[in-house]
Amino acid sequence: MAKIALLDPHAANDEPGVGGLDEIVGFHIRLAHGAAYRHFMETFAHLDLTQKQVSVLWLIDDHAGIAQADIGRRLQMDRATTMAIINRLQARGYVVRGRSPHDGRRQTLTLTEGGHEALLEAREAIAQHERWLKERFTDGELETLVALLRRIHD
Fold first, then answer.
1. Phi/psi at 36 (nearest 5 deg)?
2. What confidence score (pLDDT) does residue 100 get?
3. Which string of b and e fits 8-45 if b means at least 16 CB within 10 Å?
4. Would you call 3 helix, strand, or coil by DSSP?
5. Which residues in the chain are classed under CATH 1.10.10.10?
6. The CATH number of 50-154 is which of 1.10.10.250, 3.30.1330.60, 1.10.238.10, 1.10.10.10?
7. Which of 2, 65, 147, 152 could form a disulfide with 108 if both were Cys (CB 3.0 to 4.6 A apart)?
8. pLDDT of residue 15
9. Which of 51, 61, 52, 128 is nearest to 94 (CA)?
10. How many Å apart are CA 104 and CA 139, to the nearest integer?
11. Regions of the chain with pLDDT less than 70
12. Left, alpha or beta for 84 (phi > 0: left; psi -120 to 50: alpha)?
């Protein structure tokens, strides 16, 4: 019955629907984000890493020696947030800072062995999380979904 209430806000039952909110795209994006985030947190709880920390580790692994500023730009994070994340990762022994051989003003980042191991564990958790997300859609629906989401965030 609850699904009927969500599809038809005027359906008669004991559980109230969401009314006009059902027609608000942002409302559904928020609900979908909440569901994906909750599952992510459950899947990653044993790693004690956030989504942003995993993203930073992944970028550093893919681009050894990447500059801190480039990570912020690529992940659309402000400078303070980027620095705080990298400081936490460095404190855990996952990354080391260095100086760019081309520009002494730029800090480069490299994964330590511990950071690489944490990333490997995170990638396994990501694969599990991605399976959970993707099993809800056909391949064609996934392509469409990603294309539509890119319209919002690009």
1. -65, -40
2. 78
3. eeeeeeeeebeeeeeeeeeeeeeeeeeeeeeebeebbe
4. helix
5. 50-154
6. 1.10.10.10
7. 65
8. 58
9. 61
10. 46
11. 1-15
12. alpha
Tokens of 14: 């004991």
Left (φ > 0), alpha (ψ -120 to 50) or beta: where does 50 sit? beta
Record the pTM: 0.72
Per the rule left: phi > 0, alpha: psi between -120 and 50, beta: everything else, 95 is: beta
CA-based max dimension of the chain:
69
Distances (CA, A) of 59 to 64, 92, 109: 8, 17, 10
Sheet with 107-111, side-by-side order of all strands: 66-67, 107-111, 95-99
